[in-house]
Amino acid sequence: MAEMVGFIGLGIMGMPMARNLLRAGFPVVAHNRTAAKAEALAAEGARVAASPAEVARAADVVVICVTASDDVERVVLGAEGVAGIIEGVRAGAVVVDMSTISPAVTRRLAGLLAERGASLVDAPVSGGEQGAIGGTLSIMAGGEAAALERVRPVLEAMGKRITHCGPSGAGQTVKLCNQIAVVLNNLAMAEALVFCQRSGVDPAVMIEAIAAGAAGSWQISNLGPKVIARDFAPGFKVGLQQKDLRLALEAADDLDLPLAGTALVHHLFRAVEHAHGPDTGTQALVRALEALAGLEVRSDRQPSL
Ligand code: NAP
Fold it and tell me: Of the four, 82, 144, 216, 279, which is 20 to 30 A from 36 by CA?
């Protein structure tokens, strides 16, 4: 029988990821701050634990998928009467943090877990909710190679590409590189759409023409059609995107590195948040450019891609 895996954080990403572990035959012991979500997973065969410490007492591999750096700190170190992983962690255990958080916080938590004889692998993901459901996430891992190899079968149940990026924090650094490239592609798409609209050419035609060429991107193919249909429902929320850009810009400050494009998009998203709230989808970046240009990008048909 496969070994017991602990799972903490059953949100948009964590719930389908934990489900894929169950489907792959791993017994799962799960904890979620809002208990009702863990009960839903219990109906599918998971055992429910009352705290992160209880999860850690029951499993040698403990996966975390919560929101931000301070949330991971609370889950690992405990807070407000909730016992953290560190209170229950077994010597030799591997904690796998799949949230997107600060590389510096990751390294600090890795040090504290090492004092208990446990390892931390940072393993943030790319691929969105669809990738989590389909088990096709790209997983960017940091930490000791031996710890990663130990948990590889667990990660293989959730992702299709697992890249060892380097020592502790390197997975989070590569995830921030991913986010920098994602938002600048998004801006490139948005600017092309606004230019196209003002020029009087159908944006659906433009998307069809450039999607397959040198300017093609995941954003053009997946977010472009949503923009011209005025569909701003979230795949990925602007509020979470802003959290990631803050992490990238803080790291750039520490490195004394100019990150001009990322800073620009961060401020444009701030305007989008003011006008449309943090829960709108990231394709709403175009709305900041539309406000500057005094126009709206739309088409009465969808591109055929
Ligand atoms: P989500 O739906 O908001 O879920 C967050 C989960 O974390 C919930 O289960 C929440 O518990 C739990 N949580 C938050 N703070 C906590 C705390 N202090 N203590 C204990 N549990 C806490 O978010 P998500 O979309 O699944 O994202 C999770 C992580 O994956 C984030 O770091 C995000 O940046 C990253 N990510 C997301 C996507 C995406 O497309 N959504 C893609 C790649 C990476 P409650 O149920 O009690 O609220």
Answer: 279
What's the pLDDT tens digit per position in 16-31? 999 999 999 999 999 9
What are the sequence ranges of the domains in the chain?
A: 5-168, 174-293
Cα–Cα distance between 235 and 88 in angstroms, integer? Answer: 35
- Cβ proximity of 56 and 62 under 8 Å: yes
Structure tokens at 260: 């001009």
Which residues, judged by CB distance below 6 Å to any ligand atom, belong to the binding site of ligand 1? 9-14, 32-34, 37, 65-67, 71, 74-75, 99-100, 125-126, 128-129, 236, 240
pLDDT digits (tens, 9 = 90+) for 185-226: 999 999 999 999 999 999 999 999 999 999 999 999 999 999
Amino acid at 14: G
Q: How far is the C-alpha of 236 from the C-alpha of 245, rounded, in Å?
A: 13
* Predicted TM-score of the model (pTM): 0.94
Q: 174-293 adopts what CATH topology?
A: N-(1-d-carboxylethyl)-l-norvaline Dehydrogenase; domain 2 (1.10.1040)
Has domain 5-168 been given CATH number 3.40.50.720? Answer: yes
Options 160, 175, 226, 237, the catalytic residue: 175
Q: Are 195 and 188 in contact (CB under 8 A)?
A: no
